[in-house]
Design brief:
Distance between the termini: 11 Å
Bound molecules: 4-nitrophenyl phosphate
Helix content: 25-40%
Order of helices and strands: EHEEEHHEHEHH
Strand order of the largest sheet: 2-1-5-6
Shape: globular
Structural class: alpha/beta
Largest sheet: 4 strands, parallel
Length: 153
């Protein structure tokens, strides 16, 4: 089993989009049994008393428009230090995410932490649609990143 955790700031926009895009890619490839895929947050802004917010409405609509199935019960979850042992890959969306992922996980001795866009020729970051309001652009970057990442697995 390959365990993958996508990570962003709030776990309500980019990382859940990446989680469900990646689940769709491995399902289409007939390999869903080989992967366990989830997503988590570096910050607790959308988590209250252990209960997390669902995927943000615009992100849900964007996934639906592209025919990507998602779980409406998905709740924002905070990344924690003990996650480091469990997962094979931690995939962040931007440089800020990578900074906090390393801080929370206590470094990266096994080189498990990556930026999603590092798998693509263009590189860079997935801009946060919470601020840009451009969910379509985020989706396109996430699809390109997840497709390229999948081909390394
Ligand atoms: P995400 O976007 O990191 O892609 O989930 C954000 C969602 C919420 C907030 C910031 C970024 N927030 O400040 O609540």
């Amino acid at each position: 089993m390959i365990n993958i955790c996508f990570v962003c700031l709030g776990n309500i926009c980019r990382s859940p989009m990446a989680e469900f895009v990646m689940k769709d890619i491995v399902k289409t490839a007939g390999r869903q049994g080989e992967f366990s895929i989830c997503s988590k947050a570096t910050h607790s802004d959308n988590i209250w008393n252990g209960s997390g917010a669902p995927i943000y409405g615009n992100a849900q609509r964007c996934l639906a428009q592209h025919g990507i199935p998602f779980d409406t019960r998905k709740e924002a979850t905070l990344l924690k230090k003990s996650d480091y042992e469990h997962f094979d890959y931690f995939i962040g969306m931007d440089n800020d995410n990578l900074y906090y992922m390393k801080k929370i996980l206590g470094g990266d001795p096994q080189h498990k932490i990556h930026a999603l866009m590092e798998f693509t020729a263009q590189g860079g970051e997935v801009a946060d649609p919470w601020y840009t309001r451009n969910f379509e652009r985020a989706y396109e970057d996430i699809l390109a990143g997840c497709t390229a990442f999948y081909h390394t697995l």
